[in-house]
C-alpha cells in the first residue's frame, strides 16, 4: 500500500512539500521518490523482523543484517551514481537493493526461531497487536510531521538553502541515531526485568541507561562541535552550500544530549509497554513544534527551522522525565514495588 501510494502520488507529494514544477529539484526528487517506493515492502518487513529479534533479546542478528545491507548500499552507490551515470536514480536503486537484502537476511534467520507463516490466528493477540501498533503509528506520524514540515520550509527557500539544510539534517540524524542503540538495549533489558517482576533491577537499568545516554550525548556534542566543518566537506565542495550547512553547527551540537535522552526514553516506554504515553506525548510535541515552525520559520529562515526541531526534541525529553514522576501506569509499579 505504501509503495503504490508513493508511486502514484509522487507528483502530488512534491506539490504538498512545496517544490514547484519549474524547480530544478522537482524532476530528480520525483524520480528518486518513485524508485525508492519499491523499497517500502522490505523496509516494513525488516522493521517487523527487528522487533521480533528484540523480543528474543537478540541485537546481533539485526546488526549484521543492517551492516550487510548498508555495505552493499555504499558499494552500489559508488558504482551506480558516477561510473554508470545514473545519478539520483542510482542512489535510489542502490538503497532499494540493500533494503531487500537486509529483509531477506532477517527473514531467513527469523525462520529458525519461529513459524513465519501460519493459518493459526489468535484473535485476542491480533487485537492487542493492532491496538499497540495503532498507537505506535500515531507516534511515528508525530515524529515525521515536524521533520517533513521543516524539509518543506527549507525547500521553499531554493536549491542552495535546501542542499545545506539537508547536509546538516543528515549529520544530525546519523549521529543522533547512534543513541538509538542505547534505546534498544534499554528496551530489551527493562522488558526482561519488568516481566520477571525484578523491579529493583528494572530501576537500576533505567538509571544506568539514562546516565549513559546523557554522557554519550555530551561526548557526541563535543565531537561534532570540533569536527562538523570537516564532516560537511564529505558531502560537497560548493562554497554556498557549505556556508548554509555550517550555519547549523549549533543546532547539530547542542541537541545531541537532548536527542540522547529522548531516544532513551523511547526505548524505556516500549520496555514497559507504555505505548499510549509514548504516542500521546510525541503527538503533543510534534503538534507544538509544527505550529512553532509554521509561525517562526517563514520569518527567520533556517534558524527558525533549527529552533523548531530543537523544541521538538526538547519537549520529548521533558515528557520522559514527567512520565517518570507521574502517578499511574506501569512506572508506578516500577517505583513502588520491591522484589
TrEMBL record:
Q: Which domain of life is it from?
A: Eukaryota
Q: Does the keyword Secreted apply?
A: no
Gene Ontology, cellular component aspect? membrane
The membrane-spanning stretches of this chain are 63-82, 129-149, 169-191, 212-235, 247-265, 277-297, 303-322
Record-level Gene Ontology MF annotations: antiporter activity; xenobiotic transmembrane transporter activity
Stored Pfam families = MatE
Locations listed in the record: Membrane
Q: What membrane topology is given?
A: Multi-pass membrane protein
| Keywords from the named record | Membrane, Transmembrane, Transmembrane helix
Similarity-based family: Belongs to the multi antimicrobial extrusion (MATE) (TC 2.A.66.1) family.
Q: Which PANTHER family match?
A: PROTEIN DETOXIFICATION, PROTEIN DETOXIFICATION 44, CHLOROPLASTIC-RELATED
* Name of this chain's protein: Polysaccharide biosynthesis protein C-terminal domain-containing protein
Where does this protein come from, organism-wise?
Aegilops tauschii subsp. strangulata
